[in-house]
Design goal:
The chain is an alpha/beta fold and about 240 residues long. The chain has a single domain (about 15-225), classed as Rossmann fold (3-Layer(aba) Sandwich). The protein has helices spanning about 25-35, 55, 75-85, 95-105, 190-200, 210-225, 230-235, and strands at about 15-20, 40-45, 60-65, 90-95, 110-125, 135-145, 155-160, 165-170, 175-180. Strands 2-1-3-4-9-8-7-5-6 form a nine-stranded mixed sheet, sandwiched between helices. Helix 5 (about 190-200) runs antiparallel to helix 6 (about 210-225). It is globular. The termini are far apart. Mean pLDDT is about 90; it is low at about 1-10 and about 240-243.
Length: about 240
């Protein structure tokens, strides 16, 4: 995405619309983004319309995880398409990732296995969200559906997979749009803050990448020092969550 023209106003803190697909842990994503300096505007998927997008004055849109299929996730698919028309940066997480695929003609079908709070090794291309992250890295997965790679149009490319070939990441070749099937907000996902910061940076929005690295490293250190096992529910939470 090109830099803003000289003399234009650059917002000191990026303003992000978070489309909440009725996910129990959407505020963990909000918290991560806030720790990176973003201001989040959270709207349920049936409480915001694409016609409101311009009036909200946001710099980017995150489409959250949630239950069900993308076609029934309220405004999610339509919001992705509207953002594409405006070249507004988008990140789709889990269900949001699937919504990106569907918005551009891809298919989502039942995954080879149902995963609920389990970790997998994620192999990636080292670009965009994954710059400087090891390949593979560990990420937490909560899904029973997956994007069908063979159904993706030429404009969408796969950026990450499991060792068995399940699509774990996509990006649009011509728009500032990325999706991840796994959960960067999980405490058991390596480099979650870094990936979210890389999204903001790739979208030409202000973010402190060094701070993101410190946050991810600090979380990893706390996890390493904690010998207690994590339940599936705790895996989705953050050790710094409030309320």
């Amino acid at each position: 995405m090109p830099a803003p023209p000289e003399g234009s106003e650059v917002r000191a803190r990026p303003r992000v619309l978070v489309v909440d697909n009725y996910d129990s842990f959407v505020y963990n994503l909000v918290q991560y983004l806030a720790q990176l300096g973003a201001v989040c505007v959270v709207r349920r998927n049936d409480a915001v319309g694409v016609e409101e997008l311009d009036g909200l004055g946001v710099d980017a849109v995150l489409v959250s995880p949630g239950p069900g299929v993308p076609e029934r996730a309220g405004v999610s698919v339509a919001m992705v398409a509207a953002c594409g028309e405006r070249r507004l940066p988008v990140l789709g997480v889990c269900l949001g990732h699937q919504a990106i695929a569907v918005a551009y003609g891809g298919l989502v079908e039942r995954a080879p296995e149902l995963l609920h709070g389990k970790t997998s090794a994620i192999e990636h291309d080292g670009a965009g969200l994954f710059v400087d992250l090891p390949s593979p890295f560990t990420a937490t997965r909560y899904h029973s559906l997956a994007v069908v790679e063979s159904s993706l149009p030429p404009d969408l490319e796969v950026t990450a997979r499991t060792s068995s070939g399940v699509v774990m990441g996509i990006r649009h070749r011509g728009l500032p749009m990325w999706g991840v099937q796994f959960h960067p907000e999980s405490v058991l996902t390596d480099g979650g803050h870094v990936m979210l910061a890389r999204w903001l940076a790739a979208a030409a929005l202000p973010v402190d990448l060094a701070a993101a690295r410190r946050l991810s490293a600090g979380l990893a250190e706390r996890l390493a020092a904690d010998a207690r096992p994590f339940s599936g529910a705790r895996a989705r939470g953050t050790s710094t969550a409030t309320g």
